[in-house]
Design goal:
Blueprint lengths: L6 E3 L8 E5 L4 H13 L3 E5 L5 H12 L4 E4 L4 E5 L9 E5 L4 H13 L4 E5 L10 H9 L3 E4 L8 E4 L6 E5 L5 H10 L7 E5 L5 H13 L8 E5 L2 E4 L10 E3 L4 H14 L3 E6 L16 H7 L2 E6 L2 E6 L11 E4 L7 H5 L9 E4 L11 H11 L3 E5 L2 E5 L2 H10 L5 E3 L5 H11 L11 E4 L11 H14 L4
Parallel strand pairs: 2-15, 3-14, 6-7, 10-11, 18-19, 22-23
Antiparallel strand pairs: 1-23, 3-5, 4-5, 7-9, 8-9, 11-13, 12-13, 15-17, 16-17, 19-21, 20-21
């Protein structure tokens, strides 16, 4: 993996985007699988796993808890010595960085253990991220969780004593990870757990959790029963992995950047995402596969091949009238930046809705995206739950030309998704001569989910420029 400078100029494509991309494993699936494997009553091997900052934080935390995880980055696999819900270490200090999945899943795991004292903390931004819904729900099931800083936030100290079970209500409107964490440990409770949801829930990630829970249980009886639209029952059960191994899907959010690439380059081209299949979108564990619908609506063909999925650009879909094209992103909001960053290249205003909850992720993603697009001369209307962007390509070109040998710099706010989405915008040959005009600050923040992103992007550029087709 190439060492990245503090500020990375993006070299534009001067030919159609063509090539193959091998995506990393899904972060959401990898961290769920690590937790579920730890809960199994024997060893489990995870294949095709993501190796990134977030998943390595999760693996290291499990090791600190005495649940041995052996990592093989070359083989993209983790071998987890499942302990059936037990935590061998009587005490541990756990650092989760800014990994929301690790923070919520590990808090639930420690609370469900029969004994031990576990201290969990992260970076300053993690201390601002929502935890209240999960903490309140675990406490109502008998957990002894002590907030050693501000109430309802990290840092935490968990005095484990198991969970009673019974009825519990949880507000997971700010993060579905809190509901997923509760569901995954609920089978360990003394009695079955009935969970009522307070407020809205992003169901694709909860359905991912539910499906994976079933895959890690040998009993064919569903672990989760839906009692209504806002309540589920989780039965008491043990986890086991009959096949001893579990394959991780390629990351659908990572796919979104390369799905958007042919649109950004705005010439005929095709990108093949190896091993990534969207032809049966309803079968994927990941709601973010729905970004394929977004690029289809903008003029790309999405084709299934035996080796994966091909994204072929044939021309921007023209917008009729001056009303914004509107896209609701609530259920696959991690990809909204992939569209927002390329809106300066579209042929009319775009309204992106259902994204209010992303204000409490790695950073305030709505405000950050509005700031960066305005910096690029775009008209932006920011509301709590939406962004509407009126593109102004002429102003963007004027600003880039006025930079005189330098590039317009994008602030990433220590958020990997800003770095990757705006890198795709920078692939557009804005000045018409192949000169870099956009630069990404702190590009190394991509280590959170896609450590070699810029290497992969550079290879696609090289392959595209080597292609002799017009």
């Amino acid at each position: 993996m190439t060492t990245l400078p503090p500020v990375l100029p993006i070299v534009p494509f001067t030919k159609p985007a063509r090539g193959e991309v091998t995506l990393p494993g899904s972060k959401s699936i990898t961290n769920r699988a690590l937790l579920l494997a730890a809960l199994c009553d024997g060893p489990v091997t995870l294949t095709g796993a993501l190796f990134s900052e977030d998943t390595e934080i999760m693996a290291e935390a499990l090791n600190r808890l005495g649940i041995v995880v052996k990592s093989d980055p070359a083989a993209k696999s983790f071998h987890v010595a499942g302990q059936g819900g037990k935590i061998p270490a009587p005490s541990a200090d756990i650092f989760v960085g800014n990994a929301g999945t690790a923070a919520r899943f590990l808090t639930a795991l420690c609370a469900a253990a029969k004994g031990g004292v576990y201290r969990l903390d992260g970076v300053p931004q993690m201390r601002k991220r929502p935890m209240k819904g999960l903490i309140d729900a675990l406490r109502s099931l008998g957990a002894d969780i002590r907030c050693t800083g501000e109430e309802s936030f990290f840092p935490l100290e968990v005095h484990a004593g198991g969970l009673w079970g019974g009825k519990v209500a949880i507000d997971a409107s700010e993060s579905s990870q809190m509901l997923s964490a509760l569901m995954m440990v609920a089978p360990l409770a003394t009695n079955q757990v009935s969970i009522s949801m307070l407020g809205g829930v992003r169901w694709p990630f909860v359905r991912m959790t539910e499906t994976m829970m079933q895959a890690f249980q040998s009993d064919m009886t569903p672990a989760v029963t839906h009692l209504s639209e806002q309540s589920v029952r989780v039965t008491k059960a043990s986890y086991a992995m009959p096949g001893i191994s579990h394959a991780i899907e390629p990351d659908a959010t990572a796919a979104s950047y390369f799905m958007a690439l042919p649109l950004a380059v705005t010439r005929r081209g095709a990108i093949c995402l190896r091993g990534f299949h969207v032809n049966h979108r309803s079968r994927s564990l990941q709601g973010d596969v729905r970004f394929a619908d977004v690029v289809e609506g903008l003029g790309c063909g999405v084709f299934s091949k035996p080796t994966g999925t091909e994204i072929m650009f044939s021309g921007l879909a023209h917008q009729v009238g001056s009303q914004p094209r509107t896209r609701e992103f609530n259920e696959f909001s991690d990809t909204f930046l992939s569209l927002a960053a390329i809106t300066p290249l579209l042929d009319g205003p775009t309204s992106i809705t259902g994204i209010g909850h992303t204000r409490k992720q790695e950073t305030d993603r709505v405000a950050g995206m509005a700031n960066e697009l305005r910096k690029l001369g775009q008209g932006v209307i920011e509301k709590h739950d939406s962004l509407t962007v009126a593109p102004d390509l002429a102003e963007l070109r004027r600003l880039a030309a006025a930079a005189v040998g330098q590039q317009l710099e994008i602030e990433t706010y220590k958020d990997h998704r800003f770095a990757m989405s705006f890198a795709i915008l920078g692939c557009h040959d804005l000045l018409g001569d192949g000169r870099p005009w956009l630069a990404i600050r702190d590009p190394a923040c991509c280590a959170k989910t896609f450590p070699n992103f810029f290497d992969v992007l550079a290879k696609v550029r090289k392959d595209s420029h080597a292609d002799t087709r017009p």
